[in-house]
Amino acid sequence: MAKGRFPQIEGGDVHIVVARGSQIYQLDSDTLRRASKFFEHVLTEDNAVCLSKRAVNSGITTRWHFELVERPVRGEHGSGKLHLMDIDADARVMHPNRRAPIDIENGMAPNPIFSHWHRVLGSIYNQPFEIEYSGLNNQPGNSIIGHDFVSVLEGVMGIVEVAEYLRCMSAVSRTLDVALVTHGQALWCSIANNPVVWSELGRRIQSWMIFKESVIHVVGQWNMLKPVQKKGLHASVYKLCARKHNELYDIKMKVDSIIYKYYPPQLSKNEDNGTKTIQRASYANDIFVWIALDIFRHWFGKAVISKNHRDAEDGGYWFYNCIGKNYDKYLTMDDLNLFHNRFPMSPKGKTVVRSFLQDIKIAVKPKCEQLLKNESSLDVDKFTVDWLTCIKLGKRDAPWLNNQGGHKGDEYTEAELGPVEVSGAGTRVHSNTGFYKDNGGGQGSARRSKKQTGPKWGAFEGQGQGEGQVQVQGRGRGRGRGGKISGSGRTVGGTGGYSSAMHGESGYDSQRKYVDLADEDEEDEEEEMEMDDEELDMFETMAGQDDEGEEDWDMN
């Protein structure tokens, strides 16, 4: 059993060179196979060297030797690739790779790709890591703009790309999630500032906290986002956000209806078993209440007509905030004076109207309580935002839990398997799925033994024909999310040359699709925000008719 600590595991049989001279890892194949589908496909006995007795007695344990090649240029995205080197029975590289990277480039700081690989490999061995963050960018303390996290986001995406290349996201996501969440409000501010990008990251690393936070802010900013920004959302995330936006819009309409239909309780008149008749004076005594109600409804209607409510760019944030929190910020004394310029009355009458209007504003204030709840982790009292953050999400909304995420996960897809080439007796040729050997010579052709269906790839077999006999055997293991898979072979020139062209329906569609919910049949249950049914029916029977022929009076 392998012992020791990362990055040098005692008895480790896998030697990985990320950067010559510094980042060299001696790891054990069992752990790598369990954590990474890449290593599961590559670390096979066919690809392992058989160590000599002398090497074993000398304590040499390496049976596979990898070096990082094709690393991305500084500032560009990518993971690089691991190249399996040919080694002899003493674990010495037979054909050294002169292109292997070094950790220092002309005195410059190391390429960030080296750090990404170290963190990913360390995560496989449960090694925590930190995400460096320099702090605010000289912005006011209550601004989310200062917490842009740009450099952090770039570094995290680099880690994600390496993890996706190795197909070990499940081993990395938890460590990465913890490293990010420890930044607290700085992280939440960054997500609020750029929720589209963070939603994609949360989906790829399958972080529920980051994904949920991102979707809350995307929905809140839905009317602010430009079409090109919405297209940056993954298809499954776009569909979820559009659905939640529609749910929230319905809630706003219900709240608007409840507020607009509100009548002060003293306006309700009931006959007492026929012994008391309701007369004209019964309503005349409430004239100031009716005036106050008319002023309120005039303000409300003007907000609707001018699209300064739920259809506003802020999704009604200012409108519902005024009604539900800052009721002293609308229909102020200045607004009432505009009304009284058109409809004069005594000072006492003005005071009475203002008092009744204040009662109405206080009465409708709780109706907006649900819309003003903060379901995000952002401290909106300290870091103010100009959109609603009240939508509720359940874990069943996570795309990776309902097979709508388009996430490659840790499995290979048919398209990624690609053509597998085999050439030369005993020569190893790299492919996405692993390596194959050709034992024999002569020109030959081969074919897939049978059509495979379902998520698993079966055995790969071929029979050579022509001069000499070519026996090509190997197993290519991989998984897709469904679809029929078929393979065909074709003859290529060269002794013992063979290649297989794989084609079929892929379980993973890398092309984004954008969903118009109007054309979609929703099958999943929707977690809608709860609304008190009693409130919905409140004052239904007392709804008034629109007044006609009234002159407008200017009021902000």
Walk me through this protein's architecture:
With 556 residues, the protein is of the alpha+beta class. It has helices at residues 29-35, 37-42, 53-57, 112-124, 150-166, 169-181, 185-193, 195-204, 208-220, 227-230, 235-260, 280-284, 287-305, 317-324, 333-342, 347-364, 414-417, 533-536; strands at residues 3-5, 8-10, 14-19, 23-27, 64-69, 81-84, 420-422, 437-440, 459-463, 470-475, 485-491, 498-504. It is rod-shaped and about 115 Å long. This is BTB domain-containing protein. Residues 483-497 have a biased composition (Gly residues). Residues 428-511 are annotated as: Disordered.
Could you list some keywords that capture this structure?
BTB domain-containing protein, 18 helices, disordered C terminus, single chain, 3-stranded antiparallel beta sheet, 34% helix
